[in-house]
Amino acid sequence: MVFPHTYRNEHTETITTNFTYGSWYAEHVRFKIPIQPTLLKLLKEIDGHENKFRHNLAKAISFKTIPTDPKYSKEIYGMKAYVESWFSKLGIRNESFDVGSTEINGKTITLPPITLGRLVKPGGNKKTLCVYLYLDVKDQKDIEGWETDPFTMVEKDAKYYGAGAASSKGNFLCWMHCLESFQTENIEIPVNIKFILESAYTLNSPGMMKFLVAKKQDFFNDIDYVVTNISEWLGPKYPSIVYGGVGYLYFTLTVQKTEDSTTEIEDDAQNIFKTMVNEKNRITIPHFNDFVDQVTPDEERVYESIKNFDPEEIIPLLPPNKQKWDKVRILMDFWRQPSMSVDESQKCICPDEMPIIKQEFTVKVVPKQILEHSVNLVNTHVKNTVNKLNIKNKVEVALVASVKHWQESMYQNLYQAARRATIQIYKEDPDMIREDRGRVIITILKIVFEKPVLCMPLIPHGCNKKVANEHIPKKNFMEATKLLAAFLLQVKDMKK
Fold first, then answer.
1. Contact 470/464 with Cβ under 8 angstroms?
2. What's the CA gap between 450 and 221, in Å, rounded?
3. Can you name the residues that pair with 114 across neighbouring β-strands?
4. Per-domain boundaries in the chain
5. Sequence-separated (6 or more) residues with CB below 8 Å from residue 200
6. Angle at Cα 17 formed by Cα 407 and Cα 302, nearest 5°?
7. Coil/strand/helix, residue 84
8. Which superkingdom heads the taxonomic lineage of this protein's source (predicted)?
9. Is the pLDDT of residue 359 over 80?
């Protein structure tokens, strides 16, 4: 197929030298996928248990699975027992493991155990999915605005309200209800599944990397794919599938006054930042953008096809230089362009002798930038700038934390299976999206297992995940369960 084409970069619009489109344009059309008889049985079974699903969600929400305070340890173990009861009912062999402790606000706390589940039928040629789920919620006393008790499920306006309804407990129960429907209808589950369940996701999963590495060669030695549902749709109406996300580097710049300096430490910090980022929020560090993926015609078509994003809603919030951008440039700016943000506040430490200021700044990195190389470029640039500007004050830059970016090919079989299942259930071709945020757990799963990772959201945007009045629409709670059933059948039929 040959089509005239224009694509954009951060500076202007240019005519591409590649006029031939790949598979995206040919494949990305709306079409219906028949509901196979097996799936039809499962859909009818799921539709018949709305009241039971509601009851199960209320039970799960009642557990105050807050990992930051030891006083909720009993609640976490109560939820663990609830999970084990589900696993026992479904024939999922399971075992829990202690993963040590971590430090929060200067206090050492014991981390909740990680539970592994195994639903595997020996022999055969079934594919093996590794499903990651989490069960914890944030401490609700730190969240203002709840109109109901966050740990007592309330049904209102065809929505189920409660802490974890849309984020943790809801996703877990969608999987359990899905597998239960297979067993109730005496339909063989078409894949092997190995579960990872934790209750420290809101702490960025400390201990998870070390634990998975230790278990990789035995428990996880035969997995083919990794699946998680930790995200949400781009908008409230159309389903989405996430195939990538950006990474972040978190730095601290420290400037300390010295005796032979004639400049103010605040001015020195400001002058250094001026050489790192311009007024358009573009990073100006030499060679920093060299490894960023080039825009292709196929990729731009993906952005153009997204239905769930209305640029008019966000344009008033953008800086003046971006308010004339169209949908494609705005999304690319969020998802595939490096940027830097500098904390407006300076922490001033003024001892009796030499004052010090500390200022935090964040750098967004994208595929195919290498984190270590990006850190070195920042450090080198700050050092060179100090010398160039002849700054006499003591300047130090330190990396505080980092989150690696991730990206999968949306054309691979796993993503096409998710796409076909979405069309079956929602009668809509899903938006293929990236995220403008770091996903610590996805990068851990990707690094450890070195397998394709699918992020398939089950809820629409606007469900207040992890904030006040979190909820899941009743319809989505049911449809998400159906989506998982359709997905498992599509994985079975995937071409090798």
1. yes
2. 11
3. 97
4. 37-244+406-492, 247-293+336-403
5. 67, 102, 111, 112, 134, 136, 206, 207, 208
6. 35
7. helix
8. Eukaryota
9. yes
**Residue type for position 376:** N
- pLDDT over threshold 60, residue 454: yes
**H-type alpha helices, 63-168:** 73-90
Tell me the C-alpha distance between 345 and 342, whole Å.
9
The answer for residues whose C-beta is within 8 angstroms of residue 372's C-beta and 6 or more apart is: none
Running DSSP on this structure, what letter comes out for residue 189?
P
Q: Which CATH number fits domain 37-244+406-492: 3.40.50.1220, 1.10.1740.10, 3.40.630.10, 3.90.700.10?
A: 3.40.630.10
DSSP, collapsed to helix, strand or coil, labels residue 283 as: strand
Residues contacting 36, CB < 8 A, separation 6+: 489
The CATH code of domain 247-293+336-403 reads 3.30.70.360
Within 10 angstroms of residue 61's Cβ, the number of other Cβ atoms is 27
Pairwise CA distance, residues 230 & 221, whole Å: 24
Joined tokens for residue 3: 């089509």
Residue 323 DSSP SS3: coil
In sequence order, the β-bridge partners of residue 453 are 226
For 386, the 3-state DSSP assignment is helix
Cα separation, 180 vs 196, whole angstroms: 18
Residue 346's pLDDT band (cuts 50, 70, 90): confident
The 3-state secondary structure of 17-55 reads CCCECCHHHHHCCCCCCCCCHHHHHHHHHHHCCHHHHHH
What is the DSSP code (8-state) at residue 428? S
As a whole number of angstroms, the distance between CA 245 and CA 262 comes to: 44
Mean pLDDT across the stretch 318-339? 91
What is the rounded CA–CA span in Å between residue 436 and residue 6? 24
**DSSP assignment letter at 459:** S
A 10 A CB-CB count for 195 gives 20
- Whole-prediction pTM value? 0.90
Between 183 and 323, residue with greater pLDDT:
183
